[in-house]
Amino acid sequence: MKRIIKVIFISLFIIAALFSAGIIIFLKTFDFNRLKPQIIAAGQNALGRSLDFSGLDLKLSFKNGVQLRLADIAVGEHPDFGKGSFLEAKEAYLGVSLKELLLKRQIRVLGVECESLRISVVRLKDGRINVQAFSASGQPAAPAEEPSAQKLSSINAQPPAVALPVILVNQIKVDNGRLEYVDYSFEPKLSLVFDKLMLKIENFSLTDSFPIMLRASFASGSQNVFAQGKGQLNMSHPSFLLKDVKAGVDLSTLSMDTLRRYIPQLEGVPLPEIKSGALSVSIDLFEAGQQGLIALKGQGALTKGSLRMKELAVPIEPIEANFTMSESVVALSKASGILGKGMAEFSGNISDYLLKQDYSFKATLTDIDLNECIDQSPYPVKIKGLVFGDIELKGQGFDPNTALSRLTGNGWLEIKEGQLTDINVLKMVLDKLSFVPNLATVLEAGLPERFKESLSKKDTIVTSFKTKISISNASIAIQSMNMDAETFSFQGNGRAGFDQSYSFDGSFTIPQDLSSRMVAAVPEMEYLLDEAKQIRFPLKVSGKGASISFMPDVKQIGIGAIKQKGRQELEKVLDKVLGKERSNEDVSQGIEQPSATTDKKDGKKQLIDSIMGTIFKE
Predict the structure, then answer these.
(1) Over the Cα atoms of the chain, what is R_g?
(2) Which of 32, 97, 185, 421 is most buried (most C-beta within 10 Å)?
(3) What's the DSSP call for residue 124?
(4) Closest CA to 486 of 518, 456, 458, 511
C-alpha cells in the first residue's frame, strides 16, 4: 500500500513538474506580442483613450515571480482636450511575487518602474482638467428608468460589501520623468514644466498610508524642487490624500529666460535676477478627487531671499515672508525686504486662487533712499530723498495683458530731505515765461546779491513733498501733490502711467520776499502777483522718467494779468467815486470812524469781485 501511495505521489510530482516546465517553456517560447491587438483593445475600452506600445515581454519564475515589461508606451489624449498623448513612457516594468500569491493569497508587487515617463496635464478655459476625464472612462451607460416600485426597492436595498483585494507594492519608481501643466484659461496659454523628475513610493497600499519622495527641476538646469511626505488613497469617495508633506525650492537656480518661455505673458516684462532664496512649504493636508481640489491646509516661508533688478543700484536683501494656504485662500501674513537702509513691508491675500484670483495687498515703505537705491547714472536729472508711504492694492487675475486694467488702489507718498540734482527748477520755469526774453538772466542781474543764489544754483532743494494717489484704468491719478522748495512751491494734480510717463497741472508760487524783489527788477512781473503779493501762475509739468519739461499756461497767465490790472484800475475808479481823493478835511474832523472804513473796503472788494466775475464769467 505504501508503495502504491509513493508511486502516486511520485507520479503527481512528475506531472506537476512537467506541467510547470511546460508552462515555463511556453512562457519562454510564446511570443506575447501576438496578443498585442487584444491587449490594446481591452486597454482602450477601459481608458476611453487610444493606447499603444511597441513591445511586450513576460517572464515567469518562482524566485522572481511574474515580470512584465512594456516598451514605448503611449496613452492618447481625450478628444475634448486636443490631440497628442496624455502619457508616454520609454519603458515600464512590473514584477509580481508568485510566492505571496500562492502561499498567502495576496498580491505583492515587487516593483513598478518607469523610465522617461511623460505626462501632460491640461486645463481648459471652463476649468475642466484632462485627468478628471479618466473618471468617466469605461463606465457603462445609465440603465433605463425603473418602475417606481422597483426603483424604491433598489434604493432601500443595501449594496453588498465589497472587500478590496490585498494589494501591496514594495516600490514604485520613476526616473527621468517630465510633467507638463498646460492652462488654456490664460491667453496665450500657460505652460509649466517639471522635468528631471524622480519619484519614489514605498510600500504602496490601497488602505494604508505610504511614504513618497519627489525631486524635480523647474525652470532650472538642475533639480531644485524637493518634497517628501505620506500619501493615501481614500476609496470610500475616490480621492488622493497627502499628509505631513515637507517641500522646498531653491530659488537661486531659477532661469528668467526659461520662465518667459513657460509664461508668454512675461515677454518684455523686466524680471529680477534671483541671487538666493529658499522657499519651504509644509502641507498638513491635501486632498484631490474627481471634482478637483477638496481640501488644503498648509503654511510656508521664504528665507534668505536676495534679488537684483537692473533699475536698482543695490539688491533687495534679505527678503523674508510667511504665508498660509487653504483650498480657497493664500494669505501673506507678513513679508519684508531690505532696500539699502530702508524697508518695504507687505501683507495681503489671494482668494479663489484657482479661478477668480481676487487679491488685495498692502505695502508700507520706510526710509527708502532714492539716491542709494536707484541707479540714476543714465538720467540727466537725479533725485535724492527718503521715501515713506502706504499703498493698498486690489485686483483680479495675474495675466499681464489684463491685470493692470483690473487693478485699483489708493495711498500716499512722502519724500523727505529731497533734492533735484543738476536742475534749477525756478530758473527753468522762469525762462519759459516768454513775455520777457531770458527772464531768469535779467532777474539774476537785477536781484540783490543774497537773492541771486536762488537762480545760480545748479540744484533744487525740496523741503517737503507729499502726494495722495489712486489707481484705476491702468493709470495712477495724482489726487493732490504739494511740493515745497527753498524758492517756490507747487500744488497740483494729474496722472502718471506705469510706463513712467506723467503729467501734472497746478499752481507755481514764489514767496513774497523774493516776488517783491523780482517785481522791482522786472516791473512786468507785477501782473503775476496775487492778492498776497506773491508771484503765482498756472504750470504744467510733464515727462517720462527723469526727462521733465515745464510749460506755463500762457493763456491763463494772460487772463490773470488782465484780471490783476483790471482790479487795479477798478479800484482807482471806485476810490474816486467814493471820494478817497478829496481833501482830508472830513477825516481830520473825525467824521469817519474806523469801522466805517473797514465796511467801505469790504464793500469795494465785493463790488470788484462782482464786476470781474461778470466779465470773465466766473
Answers:
(1) 41
(2) 97
(3) -
(4) 511
Q: In angstroms, how far is CA 90 from the centroid of its own chain? A: 37
Dist. CA 179–CA 172, nearest whole Å: 17
C-alpha cell, 235: 476609496
194 phi-psi bin (left φ>0, alpha ψ -120 to 50, beta other): beta
CA–CA separation, 530 and 508 (whole Å) = 12
Under 8 Å between Cβ of 272 and 259: no
The predicted structure's pLDDT at residue 157: 45
One-character DSSP codes across 154-209: HHHSPPPP-PPP-EEEEEEEEEEEEEEEEETTSSSPEEEEEEEEEEEEEEEESSS-
User: Which residue bears the cell 506755463?
Assistant: 552
CB 427 within 8 A of CB 455: yes
What SS3 state is found at 599? helix
Per-residue pLDDT tens digits for 121-160: 998 888 788 887 765 554 443 443 444 444 434 434 444 4
Task: Establish whether the linkage from the previous residue to 318 is cis, with ω within 30° of 0.
Answer: yes
Give the residue carrying C-alpha cell 520609454: 90
Question: What is the CB neighbour count within 10 angstroms for residue 329?
Answer: 14
Helix (H, G, I), strand (E, B) or coil at 56: strand
Pairing of β 167-183 and β 190-205: antiparallel
For residue range 182-206, list pLDDT tens digits in order. 988 888 888 999 999 999 999 988 8
Give the dihedral of Cα atoms 48, 54, 58, 59; nearest 10 deg.
Answer: -150
- Do the strands 107-115 and 118-123 form a parallel or antiparallel pair, or are they unpaired? unpaired
DSSP structural state of residue 474: T
Find the angle CA(455)-CA(457)-CA(461) to the nearest 5 degrees: 100
Residue 155: what pLDDT?
Answer: 39
Q: Which residues pair with 472 in a beta bridge?
A: 475
Q: How confident is the model at residue 380 (pLDDT cuts 50, 70, 90)?
A: confident
Q: What is the dihedral of CA 146, 152, 156, 162, to 10 degrees?
A: 0
- Is residue 333 within 8 A of residue 323, CB to CB? The reply is yes
**Is residue 304 within 8 Å of residue 312, measured between CB atoms?**
no
Distance CA 316, CA 343 (A): 9
Average pLDDT for the chain: 81
Q: Note whether 315 and 346 are within 8 A (CB).
A: no
**For 68-96, how does the pLDDT look when each residue is reduced to its tens digit (9 = 90+)?**
888 999 999 988 888 889 999 999 998 88
pLDDT tens column, 466-505:
999 999 988 999 999 999 999 999 999 999 988 888 999 9
First vs last C-alpha separation in the chain: 135
Report how far residue 415's alpha carbon sits from residue 365's, in angstroms, rounded to the nearest whole number.
11
Using the Cα atoms of residue 401, residue 402, residue 405 and residue 408 in order, give the sign of their dihedral: negative
| Dihedral sign computed on CA atoms, order 356, 321, 336, 340 | negative
pLDDT of 575 over the 80 cut: no
> Where is 576: in which H helix or E strand?
helix 554-577
- Provide the Cα torsion 302, 303, 306, 309; round to 10°: 20
